[in-house]
Amino acid sequence: MSAYDLHVYTSHTIGENSLEEMASFAKRLGFLGIGVVRFHTDPKKELPKTDIDLVDVVLIKADKNIEEIASSIRKEAEIIAVYGGNYEINRQACESKYVDILFHPEFGRNDSGLDHICARAAHDSNTAIEINVREIIESYKKGRTRVLLSMKRNIMLCKKYGTNIITTSSALSKWNMRSGRELASISYLLGLELGNAIDTVGKIPEEIVKINREKLMQKRFEGVIEE
Amino acid sequence: MLEDSRPKTLPPSLRDKGRYIVFEIISENPVEYKDFLEAFWNSMVMFLGELGSSDCQARILKNLYDQKSQRGVIRCKHDMVEHVRSSLSMITMIGESRTLIRINGVTGTIKAARNKYLAMRDLRSFK
């Protein structure tokens, strides 16, 4: 099974392990590639060549102007993700054609952070919604039930409007990583069908990476690339 | 005095269909069987609850746990494999070492689990 984990931190940002350690551990877990996250304020660094595919994921963590920031970095980023949690930010990310992934829309909230308008907008603008497994693993008792409920609700909305979902480990250290099939099993328990759950770690992230790389190499012109 | 007798073994059509999950423990330090057992049941009950855990009918096969290679086999009901799999992925610490559990595969018989994943091949089939 080919799997991508598009939300991994290294010691260059807030992670614990180096890029090489994360890459070798991901290879041991059977991943085809990982998305190495950097913040949009950090300068771009060339990723070294390793045994697995390394994807440059730029994370926008801002209170406003998501569209503006995303359009300014679109030409240099392989994947643009937005740090969710605030409803206004979630909605801007869902409506933006420059944003590829909305990370943890339910983070730090009592509700799921998405509604039917966001889910439909995310479908129209091809923005994927993330299921963040570290949020489940690190939460406890009542908090965990709240997180699971929010994720179930988001999955229900995404299924209804055909929005893409991706499942990630959001690993801060190599010990937070889980293999692709384990990530898929959590999405399955949250309400996806098994085949679709496996696609959230395989086909969908692979397709996002492939399309964005083609756009950056100017092999694909439809969609969001500016004139 | 009445003799204590056991109920008869159910016919195959009435027995629960089982699956055997072959797992591997990846951790900072080697993990002992009893520590894994405790972590496994804590994780099951915490994630699935008591009712959900009992539905899984999960049990760890003690004689197949290999301390050296840190591999073992869990038996569960055939339709609850994903539940057990996700409960295993919730384990982060065993004892004082950081841990993750990786599933190597799922089989329908113990024999297949031994042959395919635990490298315990029967010499009689060796050619």
CATH architecture of the domain at 57-171 and 179-216 in chain A: Alpha-Beta Barrel
Give the helices and strands of chain A as they follow along the chain.
EHEEHEHEHEHHEHHH
Number of helices of chain A: 9
**SS elements, strand count of chain A:** 7
Task: Detail the poorly predicted runs of chain B.
Answer: none
CATH topology category name of the domain at 57-171 and 179-216 in chain A: TIM Barrel
Mean of residue pLDDT values of chain A: 91
CATH superfamily of the domain at 57-171 and 179-216 in chain A: Metal-dependent hydrolases
CATH architecture of chain B: 2-Layer Sandwich
In spatial order, strands of the major sheet of chain A run 1-2-3-4-5-6-7
Overall spatial form of chain A:
globular
Mean pLDDT of chain B: 90
Termini gap of chain B: 56 Å
Output the CATH homologous superfamily of chain B: Ribonuclease P, Pop5 subunit
- State the separation between the terminal residues of chain A, measured CA to CA: 38 Å
Total beta strand runs of chain B: 5
In words, what does this structure look like?
The complex is a heterodimer of chains A (227) and B (127). Chain A is built from 9 helices and 7 strands; from the N terminus they run βαββαβαβαβααβααα. Chain A has a 7-stranded parallel sheet, sandwiched between helices. Chain A has 227 residues and is of the alpha/beta class. Chain A has helices at 19-28, 66-73, 87-95, 116-124, 133-138, 142-161, 180-189, 194-199, 203-216, and strands spanning 4-8, 33-39, 53-60, 79-83, 101-103, 128-132, 165-168. Chain B is α+β, with helices and mostly antiparallel strands. Chain B has one domain (17-116): Alpha-Beta Plaits (2-Layer Sandwich). Chain B is built from 3 helices and 5 strands; from the N terminus they run βαββαββα. A 5-stranded antiparallel sheet of chain B has the order 2-3-1-5-4. In chain B, helix 1 runs antiparallel to helix 2 (81-89). Chains A and B meet through helix 5 and helix 7 of A and helix 2 and strand 5 of B.
